[in-house]
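Final report, closing paragraph on structural work. Over the funding period we assembled a curated collection of sequence-structure pairs, and we close with a single example.
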Amino acid sequence: MITAYLPQGGQLHRIELTPDSVLPEGTVWVDLLEPTPEEEKAIERLLEIEMPTREEMQEIEISSRLYREGDASYMTANILYHAETPVPQTTAVTFMRTPRAVVTLRFADPLSFRQFVARAQRQPSLCATADAALCGILDSIIDRAADVLEVAGKDLDGVSRAIFGYGRREDYESADETDLEDAVRKLGRVEDLTSRIRDSLVSLTRLTAFLNLTMAEQRGTKEARIWLKTLSRDVQSLSEQAAFLAHKGNFLLDATLGLINIQQTKIIKIFSVAATVFLPPTLIASIYGMNFEVMPELSWSFGYPLAILLMIGSAVLPYWWFKRKGWL
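Its predicted structure, as stored:
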């Protein structure tokens, strides 16, 4: 699908194009969402550019993601989408800055693009020029990443409260293994989300640096260059926040696994204490269970009660000793 955006009469017009259409005069942004080969060839003909293939968009080399061909600049970044689902994803989006318009090529529909279109329709000045439209799209993508990071931070705070109880011993002592396993699953999802955000921010850092250099050499508008510098600082601050959340997530994961190990150790300790407590009575019972003929206690009338008392005493004495030492 090809969608052209052009400001006209104080409004932002959205026009869907076909492969046979002519690019409207004044178009500042051409958006290709899952285009067909015919639609790609049509844009190549209208704007005199060469569209990258989907395989080229997936390559990780910087030279394959950030380059120029004539007057056109090609920039590819990983954009987060499906962040609210259990399986967040990133998709490669290529931004092409041409003398006539900015072109975006994508095979997914991140929420950030829909949010920018809605904002631009309320504020057409966001798409006054092609550079303004490009910076506006990047701004929406970065804002979306910031929102997702805020949600991830709140999720980590919730897991932290569930694990530690903020000093209330009864909270984390009452947490069973099922609760801790659930915490591990939540931490795994947050880690997956933050890692994808960091990947997206790294690609955006490279993109903004390349775009800043391109605008400086090709005389981009002053407003767009100032906006771009602000976006670069925002990406840097978000990268630091993402790194902090990743570190916090690793700490909480280690703490959760430590608590699981403590619970398992307590269970093993109970079995160890029980074995130790019943070992002396078992020894006494084993002695009097031997089939020797000469055992003086066998002929005593108080032999049986004495053996029972010995077994009880030998069990109580270790238990009392463990309690006194604080091992129970």
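Residues 2-263 form a domain with the Beta Polymerase; domain 2 fold (CATH 3.30.460.20). The first helix runs from residue 37 to 47. We thank the funder for supporting this effort.
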